[in-house]
Amino acid sequence: MTITQNKTVQFQDLGITDYMDAFAKQEQLMKSIIDLKTKNRDRTDGNIEETPNYFLFVEHPHVYTLGKSGDEHNMLANEHKLKEIDATFVKTNRGGDITYHGFGQIVGYPIVDLDNFKSDIHLYMRNLEEVIIRVIAEYGLKGERSEGETGVWLDVGRPYARKICALGVKTSKWVTMHGFALNVNTDLRYFEYIIPCGIKDKAVTSLARELERNFTEEETAEVKEKIKKHFIDVFGARFESLNK
Questions:
Q1: What is the pLDDT of residue 197?
Q2: Is the pTM of this model over 0.90?
Q3: Of 45, 78, 167, 187, which sees the most CB atoms within 10 A?
Q4: pLDDT tens string 30-88
Q5: Is the pLDDT score of 89 beyond 90?
Q6: Quick one: 232 exposed, middle or buried, by C-beta within 10 A (0-12, 13-18, 19+)?
Q7: 97 near 67, Cβ under 8 Å?
């Protein structure tokens, strides 16, 4: 039985979408891929179907999400404060600790079958980081990895090290969900109400802060295009739009 690797990634930009709505969309896509993998495994006639891959861009209204291994004590705001700042708090099933999603942030959710690329979750995470490192390099920023601390950082090893992109994923049967959150025009004050990713001694930053200017809607769209371009290069993928 020969299974060919499908490198096509079906892409959709969901725009501003509630976190739980996007979560449900991811779960539905993930389940559809896993169900097809199970069907392929059980086939006896050799008619194997290629499993699809998806990539969603989304922008969430203010929300704090806590990973399955996270510590609730890293959420510093109580219910009253959350209401005051118009934010919600959600426990989710990705890896990692607590993070913030909000307006001005580009969130990318690849729901891909790693059997179509390489079945190695560590490599997958490093490749996602590499995509963002290449993107911000186009803006003159040197993105780096910090040992033991997933994500993309600036000035690693210095007192003012700061994270510009958070990552957290879940995999099942080598199918991924969740992904990355790149701060572009993000209101960084919202990070003051958490200990981001459970890391107390490092700050958070954004493209806007580092470049000392806000990104227009058109410029933010350009950042998304750069993400797609470098995802294609790093993963050897090709994109097919699902947007109408």
A1: 58
A2: yes
A3: 167
A4: 999 999 999 998 888 878 899 999 999 999 999 999 988 788 888 888 899 999 999 99
A5: yes
A6: middle
A7: yes
Best mean pLDDT range from 43-57, 215-229, 230-244? 215-229
- Residue 133 half-sphere exposure toward CB, CA atoms < 13 A: 19
Range 94-133 burial, b when 16+ CB lie within 10 A, else e: bbbbbbbbbebbbbbbbbbbbbbbeeeeeebbebbbbbbb
* Residue 127 in tokens: 């490749």
Asked if 175 and 27 touch (Cβ cutoff 8 Å), the reply is no
Residues 6 or more apart in contact with residue 169 via CB below 8 angstroms: 94, 95, 121, 124, 125, 128, 176, 177, 178, 179
DSSP 2-38: ------EEEEEEEEE--HHHHHHHHHHHHHHHHHHHH
Rg (C-alpha) for the chain, rounded Å, is 18
Q: State yes or no: is 165 an active-site residue.
A: no
Which residue stretches of 85-216 are H helix? 121-137, 207-211
Dig out the tokens for 104 from the structure.
């001005």
191 or 74, which is more confident?
A: 191
Phi, psi of 20 (to 5 degrees): -70, -30
Which string of DSSP letters, residue by residue, matches 47-62?
A: -PPPPPEEEEEEEPSS
Nearest partner of 105 among 182, 165, 45, judged by Cα:
182
Q: Note the pLDDT of residue 4.
A: 78
d(CA 23, CA 26): 5
